[in-house]
C-alpha cells in the first residue's frame, strides 16, 4: 500500500476553531462592557438616589428649622405679652396673691421646657410637635393670667373706691367730732370762766398790836405788826358749791412778792401760763349763789416799810380783785 503525502485532514478543523476562540473573547468583552455599563448605571443611580436623599434631608432640615424659628417667634411673642401684663399690673395686683403666684410659677416652668425643646439643634418632629402643643398651652395660661389680673385689678379698684369712701366718711365724722369737741371745749371754757368767783369790797388795814392784847389801826409803817386783808366773794350762780382755792398775793413797795414758806407761801399758774408767787392760799367751802366774806392777817419777820402794798386775789387762774394799802413814815407825835 502506497502512501501519498496529502494534507492533514485535521487542518480544516483547526481552521474552524480559531473563529470560536475569537467569539469567546468577544462575548467576554461584551460581558465586561455590559458589567461596566451596569456598574456605571448603578453608580449613577446610587448617586442620584443619594442626592435625592440629601435633598430630602435638606428639605426636612430646612422645614424643621423653619418650624423651630416660627415656634421660637411664637414663644417670644407669648413671653412679651406675659411680661407686658406683669409690668402694667405690677402696682395693681398684690405680688403675694396665691393664684397669681401659682400661675407665675407654672408659666415660668412651661417657658423653660419650651426653650429647652427649641434649643436642640436636631430637634425631631415629635419634639417640635410637643413644643407647639406647649406654646398653645402657654398662650392659654397667659390668657388666663390676664383674666385673673384683670379680675384682681377690678376687685382692687372696687376695694380702693370703698376704702376711699370709708376714709372720706371717717374724715367727715372726725371733722364733725373735732368740731363737736371744739364746741364742747369752748362751752366748757365759757362755763369754767363763768364759774370763776369775783372779789369786791376790799379792806386792807395796818394793825398795831398792843401789849395788852388790844389792836389799833395805823398807817405808820414802823407801827404796823400785820396787815389785815378782807374782801367779799360775790354771788355766783354758775359755780358749784364746794371747795375753792383763793390765792392772795402781796407785793411790797420794792415790787417783790412777800413770801414766807413757813406760812404757806408758794407758786401757782395763771391762765396766761405765768408762774406766780402767792403769799397765802385760802381754801374756801363755797356755797353756790351766796356772798361770803374772807379775812386773813399777814405777819412777817421783818418790819413793814413805807410805801404801797399791793394785794391781788386769784381764783381759777384769773385775777378776781385787788386793793392797795399805803404805809407812811411816822411823824413826831404819831
Structural description of this entry:
There is one protein chain. The chain is α+β, with helices and mostly antiparallel strands. It is built from three helices and ten strands; from the N terminus they run αααββββββββββ. The strands form three sheets. It has a four-stranded antiparallel β-sheet, with no helix packed on it. A hairpin with a 5-residue loop joins strand 5 (266-269) and strand 6. The longest helix is centred in the first third of the chain and has 78 residues, at 11-88. The radius of gyration is 64 Å and the shape is rod-shaped. The protein starts with 10 loop residues before the first helix and ends in a 7-residue tail after the last strand. The relative contact order is 0.08. The mean pLDDT is 83.
